[in-house]
Amino acid sequence: MSAMGIAVFAVLFGFSMILIACSLLIIAWKLMRQVNERLDRPIRERLAHLPSAVALTDDAPAPPRSGRARRVARDMVVDATGALSGPSRDRTVAWLERHGYVDETIRTLRLPTNRSWRRAEAAALLGRMGSRKAAPALAKGLLDGRYRVRDACATALGRVATQAEVPALITAVERRRVPRGLLSGGLLNLDAAADPALIACLRHPDAPTRDLVARVLGMRRSTRAVPALMVALEDADPDVRRHAILAIAEIAANEPVTVDPEPLFRLAVADEAIVRAAAATGLGQILGDGAGRVLTGMTRDPDYWVSYRAAESLCRLPSGDEFGWRVLCDHDDTPGAHRAKAACLEWLERTGGIERRVAAILDAGNDDALVETLQVLEGVGSRAWADLLGAPAAGGVA
Questions:
Q1: What is the reported pTM?
Q2: 3-state helix, strand and coil shares in percent for the chain, rounded to the nearest 5
Q3: Which domains does the chain have, with CATH numbers?
């Protein structure tokens, strides 16, 4: 056999051995799991009353002291904890802390000699336990050398983090060694007492960190963050400015806010396209009808998404039907005006704005206004015009 043939045979043989070894490991794991489930079953039946006793009473029985029964009792109570809330959840968490389960799992996470998968399992278990006592250990785990441990700690912190863990979470964001989505989940689920610490992070020297914090403050709908977010509208990074205005809009959509409109108007007309698009999306939510004049001007923006979103936001205003109709009546024939008319027409048709206008004119008996309205609808190719006249629709808006 030639040297090439021997090499090919060796590669194929090695590959086959790897496949066989992996298959044997999977089979062994499944067999072990089945054996464990069979051994756990009688213990679960014997302790079936335990989760309800822990959740409903303050003097629940203690778990078995050691061995498989102790681990099964823990798993049963932890499984129940995820479906509970209020006092019942507080009782289960206190029970887990009182009987040493939380401390045992923290030691497993902290012990560097444990394999990474075991530390990651411990972090995930601490998150499911829901004990605030585990938060410092999980925050330290964000610096672990293994990515699976860092990710598990970030996920678990989303369930148990407190204000004290804000610096650790922000440091993890800055170092970019944990997915931003996991870290934002941890920041998002902090209690309201953490808002001042998060607001202070809008001055962080790292722009992506400021960007993530602005997003999180918007999702948290923190009214206390509005003044700092208004300052962030002057940030040197366009992504921070963009998410600052979107965060203010998210807050304003749920709680009334009072802000100086001038910084918002400056972003709407003199910033980068991504920031102008964010302004077009958020101005109406923040200022209501007070944004109508600026949004009307933005409908002619040279950027497609800016003009389209401005037109759509215009129609969402409390007086949106009137603003949208003004755009349809505009005699401007530029591409930007065509895009704006198309967006307004689509919105008004979808929400019944045109039908409401025509019905109001008919109720008033104003024939001149009806003729003018039909002419405008014909010019923009509205389906409503075709329905009203019983004729096929004219050519649509370009």
A1: 0.75
A2: 80, 0, 20
A3: 71-188 (1.25.10.10), 191-257 (1.25.10.10), 260-361 (1.25.10.10)
